[in-house]
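User: Hand in any protein.

Assistant:
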Amino acid sequence: MLAAILLAATLPPTQTAQVDLSRNAPILGGASRCWDVTDTYLESLSPEENFGGASTLLGGPGHTILIKFGDLNRMLGRVRVVKASLHLTPLNPDEPKLRAISRVLVPWGEGPLKPISSLIKPVDPKAKLDVPNLASTWRVRRGGMNLGWQQAGAMGNGDAEKIGGTSAVHSGGEYVIEGLGSTVQAMLDHWYDNHGFELNFDNGVEFFSSQAQSSRPRLVIETEALPAATGPDLSVTLIARTPEQPKADPKPYPAEGEEVTYTATVKNVGDAPAGSFSTEWRAEERGGAKIDVTKALGPGEETTVTLKRSFHLTKDDHRMQPLGLLITPSGKDADPTNNYLEIDQNARPITVRAKPGTENAIQAELRTWNDSISPMSRYSFAPDGSKERVRVQRFQFDSPTVDPLVDAVVGFQADAPEAFLGDIGNNLGLPNLGYGSEYGVDINPGIGGGGDTRYDGTLNSRLPLDYSPSFNLTVDTSALEANGLLSMTHVGTLNAFLNQRNFAGNDPYSKVPKTVLLKATDLAGHPVANTSISFYPLDNQGKMAATPNFSVKTSADGTTLLPSKGAFGAFTNADGTVSPALIAQIDANGVATRDVLKAWQAMDTYYRGNVAVAFMNLRFDTPSAPLDYSVNLAKDRFVADSLSTPADKLAPLVDGDPNTEVTLGSSEKDWIEIDLGRDRSIGEIALVLKDKQTPFWPSFEIHAYSTGQRPEEGAVWTQEPKWAWTAANRSTHDQGHLVVAYRGQVQRVRYIRILAKSKGEARLSEVRVVPIKISQ
């Protein structure tokens, strides 16, 4: 809800704001992201096939396009929708002929992504297609739940309702459908009935989908702030179950077929008395009988509604049994968004410790976890995300007692609601991904504080992922988009231990491959050959131990096998416990350099399909020869740049004084160059900045070339794809100044050129060039 809070705080009642929603796009300047955008198409000639993982949407005769923008409440907050338009990007210039745009009336599912491994497997054309759980096809709207469309292709009156007063125009490369304001307002006010749009075309069309790398469907909304809600406000604040099993019980769920009672709490959270209301339980997306409740509730008063059902555990998927209560007040109701609450009957129960009056905010954040974060945290091994869900069993407003009936106690603070999302997984017993962060902050962390959130489905599962920034052609061309949600490790753990409610401690680390095949390289990608690497565990305070667990020696190509020390492979300590991280250190040519190997990285390779052997990389900033730090070859040398700056203005870069600095060009391909005077054998180039707050180019390359060569003929000394990460993780300090050294293969060069690969403000104090040590 953070984005919505910020929007409401910055938007005066008389001023409008425009919000542009597309999958994974930042909103409000990047304070949050639009995660929950799903789309697919239905095809009559393939009535059993789901197309939700496709990068395009096909429309026309025999086709239906479905698009949903979920979680509107989090992104918009309490606003009035002035107008809204849907923007699609066609793949061909033909004019789309829209027959109708409709509001979908029933739930449907996008279905899983399709990793590259599924596309290269041979397909038996005679084999019966199994519709993935919750996915939609021409024939069914919910695979695995036995729920069909009223009419195939979502053509029934109960499937979708035509939206009137719309218009469409094909302009500027986009196909724009206007006139959706009132429909989006209804979707915002009644999120539980927001099932998106249906598009039908008279001619064959093709648009980019939300799975495309660019030009994704966009919902552009103009909003106007509303005053604070006043008056009666009935809200469903909790659905709890009895009996509940202790999580440590050998059978932690109620017995199969056992009768259980669900108790929903209805509370008047408004500031005026509320009258009667009706209730309707919705189980497995089917509505039930409506029952009138005549009891009036004053402000702060509450009542309960119960439902008895037989318990059933869907062991392979905890998304399949939604259960919710809808209330319909007979009179004025200040906020309709809290009139429905839904849980999954197999979800993990938690207690939330908070202040009274925060129930609605908590349930809204938990809905984000269940409906947006969990399904959109998708990977090759989890193409439809986490199959686990979480529900509140009780609120704790009093003393912090231990509750054996819940899987976790999670704190909630109204002024930091999104911190609650990260704490849910951390408190469920998932691996601590921040362990060892002092030695290496993760480059694509999730809401749990670390790990990797890149979608790896476009990459061969046997290829290792780099966990430090590098220019890797194979990885770069695979478009590994980071979702920033639940990490691979956390999704893998939740799915692997789906029915083991009391998993904690070392349990998840059983998914560490017993064998690790390691490749060690320098920063430029050259093998670190025939070199000893020592692996140090971290102690209970996350500090590097004094003695290593083991040491290995690399081969001529930089590879080595790590020994399996016990139940957790190479991560097993001498006492049999697990070390969540190992510090790998090389002492070579007088310089000690380190990289971090984290157990969760090995777990990710396991979940990606490498059960027996983990293929992993480490990168060391190690020199290939002894260095002479008594000499700075750049001192007082000639400096030039792409802006033709006078030499005296650039001289501070080589004056030996880190307190002076130079402002560099801010455009991509700007450069600075140092002439060493003659060809010299160098082993290190170091950049010195005034302090850690000093800006520098986000990415750049360092080129080195010799006398008689042109700049484009020189070799790339090193590539820096993510300066911010490197400055935070591989820097040292010299009298308060930030120093980042780049070491590599010894080269004999005269000119050193630092070339920007992205635009950005840059200031630099010193460039130091260290030669190799000449033997006497």
The two ends are 67 Å apart (CA to CA). The first helix runs from residue 2 to 10. The first strand starts at residue 16 and ends at 21.
